[in-house]
Amino acid sequence: MSGLSTPSTLPLPRLRPWLMLGVPVLLFIAYLVLMDNGAVSQAGTYLHELMHDGRHLLGVPCH
User: Fold this and answer.
1) In this structure, is the dihedral angle defined by the CA atoms of residues 28, 33, 36 and 41, taken in order, positive or negative?
2) At CB < 8 A and 24+ separation, what contacts does 10-17 make?
3) The dihedral sign for the CA sequence 50, 32, 52, 43
4) Residue 16, Ramachandran bin (φ over 0: left; ψ between -120 and 50: alpha; else beta)
5) DSSP-derived secondary structure for 4-43
6) What is the pTM of this model?
7) How many angstroms from the chain centroid is the CA of residue 33?
């Protein structure tokens, strides 16, 4: 059966820095959308309304 290739393994040492950066960033974004009610996002009404609509989109009660 020619043409079949073996699956390659993920190089964990090369992915580790991206995971260490990406996971906290994703958690912070999740916090802003789900939990923050203006405590961190003091960037004005636009960001507040964006996060507010994100809560409604995800079905999270916010008021």
Assistant:
1) positive
2) none
3) negative
4) alpha
5) --PPPPP-HHHHHHHHHHHHHHHHHHHHHHHT-SSSS--S
6) 0.51
7) 10
